[in-house]
Design a protein that fits this description.
Length: 316
């Protein structure tokens, strides 16, 4: 079998002496090695002609010494997470209960809000807040969780001036009891409260001021929703909450739930309206699905709910 012949073209931009030297070298290497040599030379030529500023690239450069981390920290997967100018955003994860905690801050004033913090990760969260030089104003829970204990109560003992917040319909104790259309402010930004009961009576969703992001707690999950078989759960209420509140937000609004169990980070309102396998059904079909899930109760429900009713300070 005859070997394949490679046709190589020497870049025309090279000087005649360089062309001669390259041709001489090529005559002494095997075809695959020749192709690699030309490929590397072409890549060097191409890269030298590209002078795009680093800030225009998807992946951010390393943080320079003395640079403000709130202004320079960025990741490819969250390139659209914080479309509001001057808004810092960080998504954090607790593995035992698969809970997402969200940190938002105003870049200028450094005032911050923390959503759904977990007791097991309080040291991590406090460390990050201190490292970034943030002033945490409010720690808010989207509902009275059944699968983990909130860290808001303990965190209040470590951060002067921090206030806890939860829905007034949750039955829980907190500094701020939230109602429909209340605003949680941090610097020039704010979160608007949407009452979205159904998983529990005290569920709320939190919408960023420009409606680019919504934090849905356990009401709307990625391709799913919160269960409705305990803690005042009602499939009818949940269906109404999602369709009449969350699904009226813009299609491009990013959805950040309180949990995800298979590693999904976020979704969009448009995606969930179109692809969510439960919420694309009629109300009757949805109720039938939710009434027949037959899920085991959360492992920590007997300790989490009593603790969260008193802001997570039960037995702490």
């Amino acid at each position: 079998m005859q070997p394949h012949l490679l046709t190589l073209k020497v870049p025309s931009r090279l000087l005649s002496s360089e062309r001669a030297a390259m041709c001489s070298l090529m005559s002494r290497v095997r075809p695959v090695q020749r192709a690699l040599a030309v490929s590397l030379q072409l890549r060097r030529n191409t890269e030298s002609s590209k002078c795009a500023p680093a800030e225009n690239r998807w992946s951010s450069p390393g943080v320079n010494a003395g640079a403000d981390p709130l202004r320079t920290t960025r990741r490819f997967y969250c390139s659209r997470m914080a479309s509001s100018k001057g808004l810092f955003f960080r998504q954090l994860f607790e593995s035992e209960s698969s809970t997402y905690t969200y940190l938002l801050a105003d870049v200028e004033t450094r005032e911050a809000v923390l959503i759904d913090p977990v007791l097991e990760t309080i040291d991590r969260d406090l460390k990050l807040i201190h490292e970034l030089g943030l002033h945490l104003n409010v720690a808010v829970n989207t509902h009275c969780h059944a699968d983990h204990i909130t860290s808001t109560g303990l965190m209040k003992t470590k951060l002067v001036g921090l206030k806890s917040a939860i829905s007034k319909f949750s039955g829980a104790t907190a500094d701020i009891l939230l109602s429909e259309n209340d605003k949680i402010t941090f610097g020039k930004h704010f979160l608007t409260v949407l009452e979205t009961p159904g998983h529990t009576d005290g569920c709320v969703s939190l919408v960023v001021d420009d409606r680019s992001m919504v934090f849905t707690g356990d009401a709307l999950l990625i391709r799913g929703c919160g269960r409705t078989d305990f803690q005042q759960g009602s499939p009818e209420k949940l269906y109404e909450s999602i369709h009449q509140k969350i699904f009226t937000l813009p299609d491009e609004c990013l959805v950040y739930p309180a949990h995800d169990y298979i590693g999904q980070l976020m979704s969009t309102v448009g995606e969930e309206r179109k692809f969510n396998p439960r919420l694309t059904k009629s109300l009757d079909e949805f109720v039938n699905i939710m009434n027949n899930l037959n899920l085991p109760k959360p492992k920590k429900i007997d300790i989490s709910v009593p603790a969260n009713l008193v802001c997570g300070v039960y037995h702490v």
